[in-house]
TrEMBL record:
The keyword Membrane does not apply. Keywords: Oxidoreductase, Pyruvate, Thiamine pyrophosphate. Its cofactor is thiamine diphosphate. It holds the Pfam family E1_dh. Coiled coil: none annotated. InterPro entries: Alpha-ketoacid_DH_E1_comp, DH_E1, PdhA/BkdA, THDP-binding. It comes from Pseudonocardia eucalypti. Residues 56-328 form the Dehydrogenase E1 component domain. This is Pyruvate dehydrogenase (Acetyl-transferring) E1 component subunit alpha. The gene is pdhA_2.
Length: 376
């Protein structure tokens, strides 16, 4: 007779050691507040000087372009905009750990990851203007459409990663989501599927403290989001999300592991959303006093800049050059978005099916008549 628990010894089951799955007590941190590096033997830091400069450059550009987008939002040029201010290290560090063949599945806040991947910000912001749901070519950039419906892109990410494994392709997928998204059924389904199939998928959660006005303590009763990973049989790692080096090194560890066929990892990056959730949110109604000031002290760019300064890796000329580059991109964004023509609503019916079914065709015809001012 089989005794209780015996099945877990069955070698069809991948049974990793518990201690390899649990997050450490303290979040992984490689850069202290003074900008000094303290290496961690588990998460190798393989960046040369040029790599360090690139991380900083991407963070500065992300912040500048984000600031321009916030202004466009305030001027009524965007239907909605969700800022990445304060989350640059989490996004840039993690995205920098990927190769160009790896896929990114973003939510709606991953502007830093988009800058690293080279997605045109004008195309990206047409999503926010409401011109098109997705103006950039996801296949060209391997950057999936930005997803507003919380966590629905996570099963897509797990699915693409599973398919790649079956096809023998060594690409890796990273999926970005917030702390609030972890309460959605889709997040559970995606993590479970990915782990059971040992799919090369990195689940990168930016715990920025809030899901609009709901604090993270209302999302889970367990010790942390990363602790959930053990339930799926994948490693869970907590990382300082305002430390670009730690975010890079931890993601690199997870990406390498995924590429070796060892399955998914859940990373919880502890960071903070410095702006409102979106243009239609007033954080003054729910943020406790002093919270934003405390996080401002941990600004990811200031901290990393201390390291570059201490190593003599950054000077005024570089500062000028990167700011010019960022200003040029911001100006391109303004020129491409300000008063841009609205999209054609009839496009709603395109690209849904290869051959449009008769019901959809009838709906399209109804809308066409309505737009033309005729009877529906
Ligand atoms: C399925 C679904 N439910 C609710 C919403 C409304 N909504 C938009 S953003 C958001 C909060 C998400 O918070 P989090 O996942 O922590 O990400 P963050 O915005 O903080 O980056 C909610 C509830 C939605 N977009 N989709």
């Amino acid at each position: 007779m089989t005794s209780v628990g015996e099945h877990v010894e069955d070698d069809r089951w991948f049974a990793p050691r518990r201690e390899d799955l649990l997050p450490s007590e303290e979040p992984v941190r490689l850069l202290d507040a003074q900008g000094r590096v303290r290496e961690n033997p588990r998460y190798a830091l393989d960046l040369e000087d040029d790599g360090l400069r690139a991380l900083y450059r991407f963070m500065v550009i992300t912040r500048k372009v984000d600031d321009e987008a916030l202004k466009l939002g305030r001027q009524g040029q965007l239907a909605v905009y969700t800022s990445s201010l304060g989350q640059e290290a989490a996004q840039v560090g993690s995205a920098y750990a990927l190769t160009e063949r790896d896929w990114i599945f973003p939510s709606y806040r991953e502007h830093g990851a988009a800058r690293v991947r080279g997605v045109d910000p004008v195309q990206q912001l047409h999503h926010n203007r409401g011109t098109w749901v997705c103006a950039h070519d996801p296949l060209e950039y391997r950057f999936a459409p930005q997803t507003v419906s919380i966590a629905t892109h996570l099963p897509h990410a797990a699915g693409l990663a599973s398919a790649a494994r079956l096809a023998g392709d060594d690409l890796v997928v990273i999926a970005y989501f917030g702390d609030g998204a972890t309460s959605e059924g889709d997040a559970h389904e995606a993590m479970n599927l990915a782990s059971v199939r040992r799919a090369p998928c990195v689940f990168f959660c930016q715990n920025n403290g809030w899901a609009i006005s709901v604090p993270v303590r209302d999302q889970l009763a367990g010790p942390s989001i990363a602790h959930r990973a053990i339930g799926y049989g994948m490693p869970g790692i907590r990382v300082d999300g305002n430390d670009v080096l730690a975010c890079y090194a931890v993601t690199r560890w997870a990406v390498d592991r995924a590429r070796r066929g060892e399955g998914p990892t859940l990373i919880e990056a502890l960071t903070y959303r410095m702006e409102a959730h979106s243009g239609s949110d007033d954080p003054g109604r729910y943020r406790p006093p002093g919270e934003i000031e405390a996080w401002a002290e941990l600004d990811p760019l200031t901290r990393f800049r201390r390291l570059l300064d201490a190593r003599g890796l950054w000077d005024a000329a570089m500062d000028g050059e990167v700011n010019r580059q960022a200003d040029a991109l911001a100006a391109e964004l303004r020129a491409g978005i300000y008063d841009a023509p609205a999209g054609d609503p009839l496009e709603l019916f395109d690209h849904v099916y290869v051959e449009r079914p008769s019901l959809l065709q009838a709906q399209r015809e109804m809308m066409r008549r309505e737009l033309a001012g005729g009877e529906a």
